[in-house]
Amino acid sequence: MKKALVAGALGVSGRALVNHLVSLGDWEVIGLSRRKPEFETPARYVAIDLLNRPAVEACIGELGEVTHIFYAALQMVGNFFEEIAPNLAMLQNTVEAVERSSRGLRKVVLLEGAKYYGAHLGPYKTPAKESDPRHMPPNFYYDQEDYLVARCSGKSWSWTALRPSSICGFAVGNPMNMATVLAVYASLCKEMGLPLRFPGTAASYGILMEMTDAELLAKAMVWAAESDRCNGQGFNITNGDFHRWQHLWPRLAEFFDMPYASPQRFPLALFMSDKGPLWDAMVKKYQLLPYSFRDAASWQFGEVIFNLEYDVMSDMTKARQFGFHEAIDTEEMLLRMFAQFQKMRFIPG
User: Fold this and answer.
1) What is the per-residue pLDDT across 40-89, written as a single tens digit (0 to 9) for each?
2) Where are the domains of the chain?
3) Torsion of the alpha carbons at 197, 188, 169 and 318, rounded to the nearest 10
4) Which of 80, 147, 318, 341 has most Cβ atoms within 10 angstroms of its Cβ?
């Protein structure tokens, strides 16, 4: 049995990875997260603060041999400079604790993102390639990757970094997940008798965008973990297609059986700030899962994505050349997820 340690195991990517590893049958799975899971799972979850080094060392020291670290933990703080210290420390604490207790460590798979290319700063070179030069730091992905390069030198283990873009799946309390933003936003609009309007700018309505299915990303993480060809490499991982909101929006309205109207920009996070009571009433009315409005969707993240006015595109050629050929249609992905959200009673059906 291979033993996986998944850091950030209740996030949108970590949760999908845990489920995928369990389904494969030849992995023992241990998830690290700040809180306990709110669902049943055969995986072992440990609630821990990865910034607490003594606690991390004590916890991991009791887990036995760990063969693979899947690192998907993230801490969002005030600014780009303040993000470096906690995100680097959490990775260091995890890797060094495993090193001390596991002589059989083989691979660390680090989850990065399009932020590696400066997608958060403004227009950048697209489609982004893994060989593109770094932008002006700070960028905590650079610090994490540089740490792994230095740390594994002369060791028996290696690393691989994956760079998804706008990960979609199911997780609550997650700061970056457009699937839940879209689902909850559409459900609120329908409950209020409003058409489905795109809440961003007219320019953002027409840009080229990409997304990454959390389940596809989970497959890529296992591929990266088990392929020696991937050692010391970074790879873009996306669905493999592109979309424009202007083409996707009518399909979303059709799925939710509601009219749609022309884009109308408004400050999404501000306008959602008083919708908590409405959501609570919907949870009671439709017997939904009792997630708080705060945990259901990240409106700040949605507002950022809905107002991007430049293309967000990553080149998938390198991953395909190295052997990862999974792809999925983004429109089909979203509709499948919305149907899943309805079935699990996260949103009204």
Assistant:
1) 899 999 999 999 999 999 999 999 999 999 999 999 887 999 999 999 99
2) 2-166+213-236, 172-210+241-312+328-343
3) 10
4) 341
Closest CA to 256 of 332, 340, 187: 187
Backbone angles phi, psi at 13, to 5 degrees: -80, -40
Q: Please tell me the distance from the alpha carbon of residue 311 to that of residue 120, in angstroms, as a whole number.
A: 12
Q: Is the dihedral of CA 50, 23, 346, 110 positive or negative?
A: positive
Q: Is residue 101 pLDDT above 90, yes or no?
A: yes
Residue appearing with tokens 């399009």: 114
The CATH T-level fold of domain 2-166+213-236 is: Rossmann fold (3.40.50)
Inter-residue contact 97 to 156 (CB < 8 Å)? no
Query: What gap in Å lies between CA 118 and CA 127, rounded to an integer?
Result: 12
Residue 212 is predicted with a pLDDT of 98
**Which residues 6+ apart lie within 8 Å of 78 measured at CB?**
none
275 token code pair = 């919708």
Residue labelled with tokens 């669902």: 39
- Asked if 49 contacts 64 with a C-beta cutoff of 8 angstroms, the reply is no
Q: Which two tokens stand for residue 49?
A: 């603060």
| Residues in contact with 82: Cβ distance below 8 Å, sequence separation at least 6, in sequence order | none
Count how many residues are written for the chain: 349
